[in-house]
Amino acid sequence: MAVEAVSRRYGRAVALNGISLTLDAGEILAVLGDSGCGKSTLLRLIAGLDEPDAGEIRIDGHPVAGRGRSVPPEARGVGLMFQDYALFPHLTVLANVRFGLRRLDRAEGRRVALERLAEVGLADKAECYPGTLSGGEAQRVALARALAPRPRVLLLDEPFSNLDAGTRDRVRADTVLVLRQAGASAILVTHDAAEAVEVADRIALMRRGRLLQCGTAETLYRSPESPAAARALGAIVEISGHAVGGGIETPLGSLPRPSRIGEGAVRVCLRPEAIRIGPVGEGRPSRVLRRTFAGSNLRLELAVEGLDRSLLVTLPADAEPTDIVGISLVADRTLVFGDRARADDA
Ligand SMILES: Nc1ncnc2c1ncn2[C@@H]1O[C@H](COP(=O)(O)OP(=O)(O)OP(=O)(O)O)[C@@H](O)[C@H]1O
């Protein structure tokens, strides 16, 4: 599937602004972004529930939307699964799954529906009604129904958000297993970075209707193209710096200047592994303002000499820092962005 330069406005609000994405066969792509960034709009356009103002959408190489073409939703081969599952309460589990197989005759529809229920481990619930299922079971029935006709692309809109934290992890793992076994190509919308990392082959980061970056979790974590992309996968500390000659001066010490970075103001983003905490005398002297025990970690709030705000860092729980520590940077783990990053962030 391919989305090419797709835009959608609602009045003056730009919900999607020139989005381009591809989805390979059998791939799971997570679309990750904050509320209102356009994730659901993107899914609605792919499903055919709404039309793009510009750009084109192709499924299996065939244009389905854009350039004056609009293939109706039922003819696109796209399956949809929403966060509320939308199971029909007055139909049995089996009848719910058969709903997605209306084109098959009665006996064949029943046979395939039972097969799909077995795939999600719920064959024994076929005659139950949705009201009697747990949240996790209802989610699996919805998955069986969405996958029943073997759609070319399955679209999942925040499918785990209604589950409690304990159930969510298990249901998420089960869902990925079912998708992999079915060889399904799927797009999963989420605002939870950990979920995107766990579930997806690639992650498309969206912000304010634009695609920030698309890549594997590892690429996005190690080589984000902007501070906004860096922020999307886990907490970072941001400091400003100044590039001059071969180096960059920052309040936490100097760094070598990467060749792609011009001279002048820069922004340095630090993941936890980019900050080294050592004894006094190694790096910038920093006073521990607060220590918080957090299970396997110890969190420190530090006042660093030369930094205008406190710095939050995490240490292993068995660390025993003194009241004054030394802070330095691990140069090859720092993420440095040039001045253009300011415009991207606006
Ligand atoms: N039918 C509509 N009419 C007017 N504005 C809309 C419509 N649908 C979406 N929008 C606007 O477009 C933007 C993107 O909305 P969208 O629902 O796609 O975001 P989202 O990322 O899915 O958010 P959430 O995570 O909260 O569901 C928002 O500013 C929203 O208010």
TrEMBL record:
One of its GO terms (molecular function) is ATP binding. It holds the Pfam family TOBE_2. SMART domains: AAA. It comes from the Bacteria. InterPro entries: AAA+_ATPase (IPR003593), ABC_SmlMolc_Importer (IPR050093), ABC_transporter-like_ATP-bd (IPR003439), ABC_transporter-like_CS (IPR017871), ABC_transpr_FbpC (IPR015853), Mo/tungstate-bd_C_term_dom (IPR008995), P-loop_NTPase (IPR027417), Transp-assoc_OB_typ2 (IPR013611). Residues 1-233 form the ABC transporter domain. Keywords: ATP-binding, Cell membrane, Ion transport, Iron, Iron transport, Membrane, Nucleotide-binding, Transport. Belongs to the ABC transporter superfamily. This is Fe(3+) ions import ATP-binding protein FbpC 2. It comes from Methylorubrum suomiense.
